[in-house]
Give the backbone structure.
Amino acid sequence: MESCTNDTKILFWKRYLIYIRKNRISVNILLGFNVEVNFVFCGDCKELLNQLDNNSVQLFLTSPPYNKEGLRGKTSVWTNWKKSIDGIKYDVYEDNMKEDEFQQWQIELLNIMYDKLKDIGSVFYNHKVRRKDNSAVFPDFVFKTKFMLHQIIIWDRKTSADQNDNYLIPTTEYIFWLKKGNNPICNKNDCCFKTEVWSINPEKNNPHPAPFPKLLATELIKLGSNKGDLVIDPFGGSGTTAVAAIDTKRDYIIFEINRKYCDLTEKRIKNALLLSKSKLF
């Protein structure tokens, strides 16, 4: 069985390599799971993160699932489902793990990122206060990782689909700025925001149910990295991190488990590369 399983995996990666070569020109993947930069990998982020070299990444920028259903006790076996949560319609999206399992999963992923990060690197980890039994639940599991907390950036979305009459409309989310060493890169002068509260409207006209605003990704990348540095998004979604990396002349790697959003990311990358080339003339 083990041999059969490995053969199946190799066949999948070979087919996917052919697929991405047909659809992009800037993809570099070596079979055996060693990876190079500037590509989209459709697969499980934990497996893929483990293939990276230690101390090799300047910046991780990501927004994981929030597990709202799981927090409220509406759990199920890992499966694909279609549902609406707090006004957000998900397609293939896991948001219903048991809460203790979800937190342990996120802690493990963050600790892997810690090992892969350079000493001067950063992780910008987006999460929010969730609600259970009419009480606020802060994502304090972030503080159970190997990281030190450098700062918390407050993202003011200015709006929310949550219109519950029992509490004020929640319009903010957190960007946890996590660091490995004591002096991460901080290009404050390159960032258009000078305080820890950033007012940015949610992105519209994006088929992903909860897209990361491009302005938010762009300013975080400029803040925590330099041109030519490597930026990785383990929960790539619609590929906003890749587009922002191209615009700011950084290298990128995107991990995304949903084939639909891998394809969307590839299209957005193509457009970003064409736009980038056109600016040279």
Confidence is low (pLDDT under 50) at residues 1-6, 8-15, 17-33, 77-90.
